[in-house]
Design a protein that fits this description.
The chain has 447 residues and is mostly helical. It has helices spanning 11-40, 44-80, 84-118, 124-137, 141-156, 161-181, 193-217, 234-268, 270-286, 288-306, 312-337, 339-346, 350-358, 360-382, 386-410, 415-437. It is globular and about 60 Å long.
C-alpha cells in the first residue's frame, strides 16, 4: 500500500495506515492487560508494584520510542520525496545509534535503577516487588528499541499491516510465558512478578527476530538497501539525531510525569495504587485507537510536506481528531455498561474492584482529553519541528506534575480527583499545539 497523491486526504487513506497499527496496539495493550490480570489474582502488593515498575520501565523505553518517531518522520519525508536509498541509510544509522545507547541505559539502570525508585516509593513491600520486576524487565531494553525502529520504518512507508501480525505474535508469547512462569505451570518454578517481566522480554525478543527475517527475505524491500554494507555518513546521523533527540526527550518526559503520578498515588495508599494499576490498563484500552491515528497523522503530515502540500495538515489533523474522540467515547461507553465484569477480569478482590469502578468517570474524562491532545501534538511532530513539540511537552509536564503534587501533598485530594488531574496534561497539549500551528511557521520547515 502506498500513499496516493491527491488534493485531499480521505478517511479511507487515514484508516489504511492507522487500522493495522490499531490492531497492533490492541495486541500490544493485551501485554499490559495480561500482566495486570495475572498479577491481580496474585496479590495486591504485586499488582501495585507492577504499575510502578512498569511505568518506570516505560519511561526509559520512551527514549527509544521517541527517537523512533523522529526516524519515522524522516522516513516518511524521504518516501514523499521518492528517495528509497536514503530510507535504508536512515534505518542503518538508527540501528547504529540505538543499539549502543540501549546497552548504555542497561548498564546505568543495572547499577542505579533500584536506588532511583527508592527515592519515590514509600512502602518497603511495594519497593521490593517493584525492584524485582524492574531488575528482570530491563533485559528487554535493546530488543524493545530495535522493535521501535522497525515499526518506524513500516509506518513511514505506509506498510503497517505487518506490525499488527508481529504484535499478535508478541501477545501469544507473552501470555504463554506469563502462564508458565508467574504461577509455575508446566514444571517451571513460580516466579510471581518476575515471571511477568520475563514474559514481556521473551515477546520482544520474538518480535525482533520476526521483523529482521521478514525485512531480509522480502525482495520488495531491497530497493531501500537496508542490509547493504553500512557506510557511515555524518550528515545523515546528525540530521537524524537533530530531529529525533527532542522527540526522544519529549516521550521520556511524558511517561516520567506519569511515573510521578503513580508515586503520588502510592502515597495515598497501597489500595489506591492497586486500583490505579487497573485504571492504567483501562486507560490503555480507551486509547487503543489513538496510537494508530496519531502515527497516521505523523506520517501523513510529513509525507504531505515532502510532496509540497503542507496546507493539508489542518485537514488531516481535524479529521483524525474527530474520529479519535468518537472512538474513545465508544470504548468508554461499552466499558461503563459492564463495569463490574470488566474489573473482575483484573482482580478477585471485591473491594479493589468496586473502588476501581468509582474512579472510572475520571479515567474516561482524562483519556478523552489526552487522546485528542496526542493527535494535535503528533501533527506538530509530523511537521519536523520536534524542538517545538519538546517545548510543548515541557510546559505540559511542568503544569501536570505541579498540580498532581499539590493535589496529594497539599490539598489532600482523594483518588478520584487525582485521576481528574491527568486530564490537564491533554488540555495543555491541545492548546500548545493549536497555538503553534496557527503561526504557520512550520510550512517552511525542511529536514
Amino acid at each position: 500500500m502506498t500513499y496516493q497523491k491527491s488534493k485531499s486526504i480521505k478517511f479511507s487513506r487515514i484508516w489504511k495506515i492507522a487500522s493495522p497499527i490499531i490492531i497492533g496496539n490492541i495486541a500490544q495493550n493485551l501485554l499490559i492487560i495480561t500482566d495486570t490480570a495475572f498479577l491481580g489474582h496474585l496479590n495486591t502488593v504485586s499488582l501495585g508494584a507492577a504499575a510502578l515498575g512498569g511505568v518506570f520501565y516505560m519511561a526509559v523505553m520512551m527514549l527509544g520510542m521517541g527517537f523512533s518517531i523522529g526516524v519515522q518522520i524522516i522516513v516518511a519525508r524521504r518516501y514523499g520525496e521518492e528517495r528509497p536509498g536514503a530510507i535504508g541509510q536512515v534505518l542503518q544509522h538508527a540501528w547504529m545509534f540505538m543499539i549502543p545507547f540501549a546497552w548504555l541505559l542497561w548498564i546505568l539502570l543495572r547499577w542505579w535503577g533500584d536506588s532511583i525508585m527508592a527515592l519515590f516509593i514509600v512502602s518497603p513491600e511495594v519497593l521490593a516487588e517493584a525492584n524485582r520486576f524492574f531488575d528482570m524487565r530491563i533485559w528487554g531494553i535493546c530488543f524493545g528499541f530495535i522493535v521501535y525502529i522497525c515499526q518506524a520504518f513500516f509506518v513511514g512507508i505506509a506498510r503497517t499491516r505487518i506490525i499488527s501480525y508481529i504484535t499478535g505474535i508478541m501477545v501469544v508469547v507473552n501470555i504463554v510465558v506469563d502462564w508458565l512462569l508467574i504461577f509455575g505451570h508446566g514444571g517451571f518454578s513460580a516466579m510471581g512478578i518476575q515471571g511477568a517481566a520475563l514474559g514481556s522480554v521473551a515477546a520482544e525478543i520474538t518480535a525482533v527476530t520476526v521483523y529482521i527475517i521478514y525485512m531480509y527475505r522480502k525482495k520488495e524491500f531491497r530497493i531501500y538497501g537496508i542490509f547493504k554494507r553500512i557506510s557511515y555518513n555524518m550528515a545523515t546521523m546528525v540530521n537524524m539525531v537533530k530531529v529525533s533527540a527532542p522527540a526522544s526527550l519529549q516521550n521520556f518526559l511524558s511517561v516520567a510525569s506519569w511515573f510521578i503520578f503513580f508515586t503520588m498515588v502510592e502515597k495515598i495508599g497501597e489500595r489506591e495504587l492497586a486500583m490505579s494499576n487497573i485504571g492504567r490498563s483501562l486507560y490503555a484500552i480507551f486509547l487503543l485507537p489513538v496510537w494508530g491515528f496519531a502515527s497516521a497523522v505523523n506520517s501523513l503530515v510529513s509525507y504531505s510536506i515532502g510532496c509540497r502540500r503542507p496546507l493539508l495538515t489542518w485537514t488531516i489533523m481535524t479529521k483524525v481528531a474527530w474520529v479519535t474522540a468518537i472512538s474513545i467515547l465508544i470504548l468508554e461507553g461499552l466499558t461503563c455498561l459492564f463495569p463490574g465484569f470488566v474489573t473482575s477480569i483484573y482482580t478477585d478482590i471485591p473491594a479493589i474492584g468496586e473502588a476501581t469502578v468509582s474512579i472510572m468517570p475520571a479515567i474516561c474524562i482524562s483519556a478523552l482529553f489526552f487522546g485528542v491532545g496526542l493527535v494535535c501534538f503528533n501533527t506538530v511532530s509530523g511537521t519536523g519541528n520536534t524542538h517545538i513539540s519538546l517545548l510543548i511537552e515541557i510546559v505540559a509536564t511542568v503544569i501536570y506534575v505541579t498540580v498532581c503534587v499539590l493535589a496529594v501533598e497539599v490539598w489532600h485530594w482523594g483518588i478520584l480527583y487525582v485521576w481528574l488531574v491527568d486530564g490537564i496534561y491533554g488540555v495543555v497539549l491541545i492548546a500548545g499545539s493549536l497555538l503553534y500551528l496557527g503561526t504557520g511557521r512550520w510550512t517552511r520547515r525542511r529536514i
